[in-house]
Specification:
19 helices; alpha/beta; globular; 4-stranded parallel beta sheet; 2 domains; 7-stranded mixed beta sheet; GMP Synthetase, Chain A, domain 3; Rossmann fold; 646 residues; single chain
C-alpha cells in the first residue's frame, strides 16, 4: 500500500449528516415501509433484497410522473435480464427536466476553447429545442425513429436531444473526433433517418471544418432522409427571449429506448447498447441526487465528449435542477489548469473528470487546485480508470472541504455500480460503497463471494439501467456472451476488485488485463498507483506475456517521460515497486516509448497491446478509428519485431 495509515482522508462534518438527500431518502423509506436501518450496509442490503419496494420508493421520492401508472414495479425473470420493470407504465424523460423550467434563470454555462462564455437560460434552451422539434415533425419523425448526431458538447446538442426525446425518437451521438469509418460502424447499425452535425469545431488550438466528413457520412448512411448542420456560434439563438415555449413531450413505455450508446469498438464492431427510458430516469435521480449529492441550484461540470456515456450521465444534473456547466474543448490547452480556472470562474460545485486528468494535475502541481481558488467545490468526481491513492491524497490536501467521489460502472449501464455516499468516510484509493440497488460482490473463480481478496466484480441482481438489448442482437446471443457466460444468471462486469468491509472497494483494473506473475494475480492499477508517485514518469502501461505452458510469464513495463532509461532509474523503479507493492510487481523488462495508446474515452489499450506483442496483426485486434492516438500502435509492432523476431 502507498499510505502508511488506515485513517480516512475525509469525514463528513456533523452538520452535513442530517442535511442531504441520502438521509432524506432513507427517512422516506422508513416512513413508507416501516423498515429500520442501523447503518448504510443495512440500508443497502434492503435495497437489493427488496427490489420492488426499493425502486418504487425511488420513483415516489423523486415524484416521477407516470402518465399511465405501473402495475408491478419489478417482476423477476430468469435469466435476470428478462426482469420486467414498471409494467404498463408510461413516462417521459424530457418532462422531468422541463418541469424544472425557470424562465430567465441560467440552465447552462458554456465556455469554448477560445474562452468565449455564453449563458443559456431555460427560455432560450427550450425555444431552440422547439425549433428543432418543429424541424423533426416536418421531416416526419415519429416515435421509434433513430436520429443521430455528429456533435460537440455544445448547448445545441442538448436542445437537439430534448427535441428528439420529446417525440419518442431514439437518440445516438458521436463526437467529431471520431473518424468517418468509426462513425459509420456505429450509426450504420441504426439506419437513422436524420443526421445532426456541427459545421466545425475547435480542439487543442486547431479548427476543424467538418463539411467533407458530413458528406461522407451522408453517403454512407443509405436510409438517411435529412441532414441538419448547426453552427458553433449563437447567432441563431434568441438568448434574451422571454417566451415560454413548452415541448409537450410524448410519454412512452418504461422500456422504450431512450438512446443507443456504443462500446469502444477497439476489437470489433462496437456493441450498440440500447437503454430504456424509465431505467435511465430512475438511475440518474438515484446516482446524482443521492450518491453525488447534486442539489437544486448547484453547478455541475463533468468533462466529456458526446461520444462518452458521461455526456448522458451529466444530463441527469438537470433532473436535479442544477446548472450544467460545459467546457467545449481540450482540457489541456493551452495548459492543464484551463478547466480548473473554468471551475473557479463559474463557481462550480461538482467538478468531474477522467482519472488520468486528475493524476496529471497532481504530477504537474496545478496551482489553481487550492481551497482559496475553489472554495465552492463540494465534490470532485473521477471515473474512466482507477484514481491512484496518491491523487486522492493530493486532491484532498489541496481541497480539504471537497468529497472525492470515484465512480466505477460503464457504458453498459450509463451509470455506476460503485460510488460515493455523503455520510461515509473516504479512504484513499477506495470507492466508498456499492450504490443502492446495485448487488455488487467480489467472486473468486469458483463463484464464491470473497472479502479482502482480489476478485471478479459481479452483480447478483438486475438493475433497470442494465441494457434493454444490443441493437440488432435479436436472440441476445451477444448480450449473453458479454455478461452471463462466466457465471450462470450473474452479471460479470469485467473489472478486478478488492472488497474491504470497512474502507470500501478498490478497482484494480480490467479482469481480462490482470497480470499473472508466477501464479499470483496482480491488477494493473496496483502498479500504476505506485508508479504515479515517481516524478520522472509521465505515463505507463504494463502487460504480461506467457512464457511456458507451466504458467510462467514475462512482465513488460512500458514507460513514457524520462529522456533515457538507465540503470539508475531502473533500479529506482524496482526498489519503489518492491517497497510499495511487492517483489512480484517488479517487471522483467522496462522499455521506453514515446506514448501510450488510448481509446477515445481515455482507456489504456492493455489487451490489444498484449495481443500485438504475441504476434497478432494490429488491424485484427484494434480499430484505429476508436483510438485517440492511432499512430502509437506502430511503436509496439516495432518492439515486437525487435524483441521476438529480431
Amino acid at each position: 500500500m502507498l499510505l502508511k495509515t488506515n485513517a480516512p482522508i475525509w469525514i463528513p462534518e456533523k452538520k452535513q449528516l442530517p442535511n442531504n438527500s441520502m438521509k432524506a431518502f432513507q427517512d422516506f423509506v422508513v416512513s413508507a415501509t416501516g423498515e429500520e436501518f442501523s447503518d448504510y450496509s443495512d440500508f443497502h442490503n434492503w435495497s437489493i433484497s427488496e427490489l420492488s419496494g426499493f425502486w418504487e420508493c425511488i420513483a415516489n421520492f423523486f415524484e416521477v410522473q407516470f402518465d399511465t401508472p405501473f402495475k408491478i414495479a419489478v417482476r423477476p425473470g430468469i435469466p435476470f435480464y428478462q426482469t420486467k420493470w414498471f409494467t404498463d407504465a408510461t413516462v417521459s424523460y424530457t418532462h422531468h427536466i422541463e418541469r424544472n423550467f425557470n424562465h430567465l434563470k441560467p440552465v447552462i454555462f458554456y465556455r469554448n476553447e477560445k474562452q468565449d462564455d455564453t449563458t443559456v437560460t431555460w427560455n432560450a434552451l427550450f425555444k431552440k429545442a422547439k425549433e428543432i422539434q418543429d424541424y423533426l415533425l416536418k421531416a416526419g419523425i415519429k416515435k421509434g425513429d433513430c436520429v443521430v448526431g455528429y456533435l460537440t458538447h455544445h448547448p445545441v446538442t442538448i436542445a437537439a436531444f430534448f427535441a428528439v426525446n420529446s417525440l419518442g425518437a431514439i437518440w445516438s451521438c458521436c463526437s467529431p473526433d471520431f473518424g468517418v469509418e468509426s462513425v459509420l460502424n456505429r450509426f450504420g447499425q441504426l439506419n437513422p433517418k436524420i443526421l445532426f452535425a456541427m459545421s466545425e469545431y475547435s480542439y487543442n488550438g486547431n479548427n476543424f471544418i467538418l463539411k467533407e466528413k458530413v458528406e461522407a457520412l451522408k453517403q454512407g448512411l443509405p436510409n438517411l432522409e435529412n441532414t441538419l448542420v448547426f453552427d458553433t456560434d449563437f447567432s441563431s439563438w434568441d438568448l434574451t427571449t422571454r417566451e415560454i415555449i413548452p415541448l409537450k413531450p410524448l410519454s412512452v413505455s418504461f422500456d422504450h429506448p431512450i438512446w443507443v450508446l456504443f462500446s469502444s469498438g477497439t476489437t470489433g464492431q462496437p456493441k450498440a447498447i440500447t437503454h430504456r427510458t424509465g431505467g435511465m430516469l430512475l438511475e440518474q435521480f438515484k446516482a446524482l441526487s443521492l450518491h453525488q449529492s447534486v442539489a437544486e441550484g448547484e453547478r455541475f461540470f463533468w468533462n466529456t465528449t458526446t461520444g462518452w456515456m458521461m455526456w448522458n450521465y451529466a444530463l441527469g444534473s438537470l433532473l436535479c435542477n442544477a446548472v450544467l456547466c460545459i467546457y467545449d474543448g481540450s482540457p489541456s490547452y493551452p495548459d492543464l489548469g484551463v478547466q480548473w480556472r473554468f471551475a473557479a470562474d463559474k463557481k462550480i460545485n461538482h467538478f468531474g473528470h477522467g482519472a488520468p486528468f486528475l493524476i496529471q494535475s497532481m504530477k504537474d502541481q496545478i496551482k489553481a487546485v487550492t481551497q482559496s481558488e475553489l472554495p465552492q467545490i463540494k465534490t470532485i468526481g473521477s471515473t474512466g480508470a482507477p484514481l491512484s491513492e496518491a491523487a486522492f491524497v493530493w486532491l484532498q490536501d489541496r481541497l480539504p472541504n471537497a468529497q472525492i467521489i470515484s465512480l466505477s460502472g460503464g457504458t453498459d449501464v450509463c451509470s455506476a455500480f460503485l460510488g460515493g455516499h455523503p455520510q461515509l468516510p473516504v479512504y484513499a484509493g477506495y470507492l466508498q460503497c456499492a450504490m443502492l440497488g446495485a448487488a455488487v460482490e467480489g467472486w473468486n473463480p469458483e463463484g464464491e463471494q470473497v472479502w479482502k481478496e482480489k476478485a471478479e466484480l459481479v452483480l447478483t441482481q438486475p438493475m433497470p439501467c442494465m441494457p434493454l438489448y444490443f441493437w440488432g442482437d435479436t436472440n441476445k446471443k451477444r448480450y449473453n456472451a458479454s455478461y452471463f457466460e462466466k457465471f450462470e444468471n450473474v452479471w460479470t462486469h469485467g473489472d478486478w476488485i478488492y472488497y474491504h468491509p470497512k474502507r470500501g472497494i478498490q478497482v484494480l483494473g480490467r479482469s481480462d488485463a490482470t497480470l499473472n506473475k508466477n501464479g499470483i494475480r496482480i491488477g494493473t492499477a496496483e502498479l500504476y498507483n505506485a508508479l504515479d508517485l515517481l516524478p520522472e514518469l509521465e505515463d505507463h502501461l504494463v502487460v504480461d506475456l506467457p512464457t511456458s505452458k507451466s504458467g510462467g510469464s514475462w512482465l513488460l513495463l512500458f514507460l513514457v517521460g524520462p529522456a533515457s532509461l538507465d540503470d539508475v532509474l531502473k533500479n529506482k523503479i524496482r526498489k519503489h515497486l518492491r517497497e510499495h507493492c511487492s517483489p512480484r510487481h517488479i517487471p522483467d523488462q522496462m522499455i521506453l516509448i514515446s506514448e501510450i495508446p488510448y481509446t477515445l474515452s481515455g482507456k489504456k489499450l492493455e489487451i490489444p497491446v498484449k495481443k500485438i506483442l504475441q504476434g497478432s496483426r494490429p488491424e485484427k485486434v484494434v480499430s484505429s478509428g476508436a483510438l485517440k492516438n492511432p499512430k502509437s500502435i506502430a511503436e509496439f509492432v516495432a518492439i515486437r519485431d525487435q524483441l521476438f523476431l529480431g
